[in-house]
Specification:
764 residues; 5-stranded parallel β-sheet; 18% strand; 25 strands; alpha/beta; binds beta-D-glucopyranose
């Protein structure tokens, strides 16, 4: 049964309409029984279903029905596997159907501006292209089950500090090139049912009250068809928000905002049509839910657990593996050290924190994986809940490491170190985790470190650990994934979707994070993540796109189907990759594009395509990519559009942002001219760069008995330096100076006439 939206809107009172513009409670919209309009329910998100149990406190954190806890954002992203994300989405959609939930609040896709942002464990990446591609796949998966998504948090929501009041100040190109494309990709490729407007202000206006973001860009440019909902309690002024394009205020607040809407309409400050539009969007959501609801939906918990395990295995990143220490030989003695081996941290804190259906404990899975082959020992090493050095536990750990052939230390960030609600104060692990690793390294050279953390950490001990597995917060099956990788049952194939700086201070936002007095200025601009380390030629600890395998790959034979194209055409790029090692494995091939010469500042290179492929030992495959205009474009603030500047571009294929293996060059020609404006204060140099302008400058100067080239040849200029200096000075002189220096040959009227002529020539 579907609602007849037009008929309902015609029948509704103003009060009823307003009532649909905010929630009933924390998790649902208001039903209108008189008209047969049911309620629409939603729950968090984003890496599983957090449906509060009956009688739970409103927010429900810690009181939800058990559901599969999939790996968190960084691992999902580190798989670089769109199909896998679609499968995760589809499983979460199934779980939502079975729980009678109409919409999942996720994915969370804000850009990782700083490694210190407390909620990075929910987000995907520092790269907008990767984010958009993965988000769209996840959304398509959830929505394939007839369950909605809410892509959050739109937009420029990159920190927890003063998250509900801070004003994120960001320039237009950075907004368009870094902070919006993830959302743009999600909207254009997957049409999420809803977008969640963020808490913060963007350039002075709350995201919930921002017509530029909510209407101009989201609907008019990107073609978003769904509804905009607010983050929980993010609405400042309900009427302003509605007029800006915010349809549904969440959660319910006893109808306080609804009354304001009614009053504004009565006073003529808001039109009924504006309210009707929001109502229409909320009713369309309800229709989608009605259309798709499946009261007999069930899902297989074990199947979902196995998927969570596979995703964790494919997303964990082998950061270091000196002398092929891993996979472990299934023989000898192995000391497992660190409470995280028995008491794993596998998800983050806050609104995404869920109750899992089961937990795979790394210690148990390791022992079971090589029972009777490896002689295992365990030492706690530290107390997870205590942030202090425990001599007794450390001594016990050292003893067990001494008597083993290998030591595996489980370390990372305890819950108190990162969560929704607060940012990290530094990028370090607890001191006692770092010191424990150092102490164990002193007695055991075959040291493997397994990290559980939602965001990069400093590794002062890096030179002393032969192997490092970044296990992130891997969801409820993380323990099995860790065991599978360490024991060689699985070949690691995740790659970092973020840069690991050596220390927090190296991160480009460091000096301007998290801001002061409710203002955070994004002064690093476009140089976020690898874009910065590339530009500054600063080595990171581990670069964006890095991840090792137990096998090796060889890249060769890069081919393009053309070497010259216009910005209306596409270019096909083929790269051959061969598995040259002893194990079957997967490689993530990354394609970056570099504008060789540009009149605007651009990052040294940017990710524009990627592919993950499976290869048997000895097997080779051709991988094909297609690049279109967007791959070469920057956002032009005069055109208010993406623009390709004619010229050469390098296409770079690599195994990470720091390991480019193949390069080809292509010429791209623009079909769009950027309009030029010439005024009395345009410089002689500016005019000379334009073909018509150059001629005119030449004529004027000749009329005055001079020309730029003559100035260069000036006999009186006694050195090359002076000539160069004079030429440069002339170039930077505003056109108006010609009037003053023409000794009457030239006046203001003449100048204005000539400038007018140039403009009309350019435009015709
Ligand atoms: C979070 C959202 C979440 C909502 C509902 C907010 O505080 O920012 O991501 O979906 O709460 O729990």
């Amino acid at each position: 049964m579907k609602l007849d939206i037009d008929k309902l809107i015609a029948e509704m009172t103003l009060e009823e309409k307003a009532s649909l513009c905010s929630g009933l409670d924390f998790w649902s919209t208001k039903p209108i029984e008189r008209l047969g309009i049911p309620s629409f329910t939603m729950t968090d998100g984003p890496h599983g279903l957090r449906k509060p149990i009956p009688g739970a406190p409103e927010h429900g954190i810690g009181y939800s029905e058990p559901s599969t806890c999939f790996p968190t954002g960084p691992i999902l992203a580190a798989t670089w596997d769109k199909e896998l994300l679609e499968q995760v989405g589809s499983s979460i959609g199934k779980a939502a159907q079975a729980a009678g939930v109409n919409m999942v609040l996720g994915p969370a896709i804000n850009i990782k501006r700083s490694p210190l942002s407390g909620r990075n464990f929910e987000y995907y990446s520092e790269d907008p292209y990767l984010t958009g591609e993965l988000a769209a796949s996840f959304i398509n998966g959830v929505q394939s089950q007839g369950v909605g998504t809410s892509v959050k948090h739109y937009a420029v929501h990159n920190q927890e500090y003063r998250r509900m009041s801070v004003d994120a100040v960001v320039d237009e190109r950075t907004l368009r090139e870094i902070y919006l494309p993830g959302f743009e990709g999600a909207v254009k490729d997957a049409q999420p049912w809803t977008i969640m407007a963020a808490y913060n202000k963007v350039n002075g206006t709350y995201a919930t009250e921002n017509p530029y973001l909510l209407t101009d860009i989201l609907r008019e440019e990107w073609g978003f068809e769904g509804a905009v909902i607010s983050d929980w309690m993010a609405v400042n002024e309900r009427v302003v928000a509605l007029a800006a394009g915010l349809d549904l205020e969440m959660p319910g607040n006893g109808g306080y905002g609804d009354q304001k809407i009614v009053k504004a309409v009565q006073e003529g400050k808001l039109s009924v049509e504006q309210v009707d539009q929001a109502v229409e969007r909320v009713l369309s959501l309800i229709n989608k839910a009605l259309d798709n609801s499946n009261s007999i939906a069930v899902y297989d918990k074990e199947e979902h657990h196995q998927l969570a395990r596979r995703v964790a295995t494919e997303g964990m990143v082998l950061l270091k593996n000196e002398n092929g220490l891993l996979p472990l030989q299934k023989t000898g003695r192995v000391a497992v050290i660190g409470e995280m081996a028995k008491n794993p941290r596998y998800q983050g804190g806050g609104s995404s924190h869920m109750i899992p259906t089961q937990i795979d404990v790394p210690w148990e899975k390791l022992v079971a994986g090589a029972a009777g082959q490896i002689e295992w020992s365990y030492a706690q090493g530290y107390e997870l809940v205590k942030d202090e050095w425990n001599e007794e536990l450390v001594n016990e750990a050292i003893r067990s490491a001494q008597h083993a052939d290998y030591a595996i230390v489980f370390a990372g960030l305890p819950e108190l170190y990162e969560s929704e609600g607060f940012d990290r104060e530094h990028m370090r692990m607890p001191d006692h985790h770092n010191r424990l690793i150092e102490e164990v390294a002193k007695v055991q050279p075959n040291l493997i470190v397994v990290l559980s953390n939602g965001s990069p950490v400093e590794m002062p001990w890096i030179g002393h650990a032969k192997a490092i597995l970044e296990a992130y917060l891997g969801g409820q099956a993380a323990g099995s994934a860790i065991a599978d990788i360490l024991l060689g049952e699985a070949n690691p194939c995740g790659k970092l979707a973020e840069t690991f700086p050596e220390q927090a201070e190296h991160n480009p936002s460091h000096f301007n994070f998290p801001g002061h007095n409710d203002e955070v200025v994004y002064r690093e601009g476009l140089l976020v993540g690898y874009r910065y380390y590339d530009a500054k030629k600063i080595k990171s600890l581990f670069p964006f796109g890095h991840g090792l395998s137990y096998t090796s790959f060889e890249y060769s034979g890069m081919r393009l189907d053309k070497t010259q194209l216009t910005d209306q055409e596409t270019v096909k790029v083929v790269v051959s990759v061969k598995n040259t090692g002893p194990f079957a494995g997967k490689e993530i091939v990354q394609l970056y594009v570099r504008d060789v010469k540009s009149s605007v500042a651009r990052p040294a290179k940017e990710l524009k395509a990627f592919s993950k492929i499976y290869l048997e030992p000895g097997e080779a495959k051709d991988i094909e990519f297609v690049l279109d205009k967007r791959a070469f474009a920057y956002y032009n603030t005069i055109l208010k559009d993406w623009h390709v500047e004619s010229g050469e571009f390098e296409i770079l294929a690599g195994a990470s942002s720091d390991n480019i293996l193949l390069t080809a060059t292509v010429q791209v020609d623009s079909t769009v001219a950027v309009p030029k404006r010439f005024t009395r204060n345009s410089t002689i140099g500016d005019l000379s760069e334009d073909p018509i302008g150059a001629k005119i400058v030449q004529q004027i100067m000749q009329g005055m008995g001079q020309s730029p080239s003559e100035a260069e040849k000036d006999e009186s200029a006694d050195s090359e330096t002076t000539r160069k200096m004079m030429a440069e000075i002339v170039k930077s002189m505003p056109m108006r100076t010609l009037v003053a220096t023409s000794k009457g040959a030239f006046d203001d009227q003449k100048l204005d006439y000539i400038l007018g002529q140039i403009e009309s020539n350019i435009r015709s």
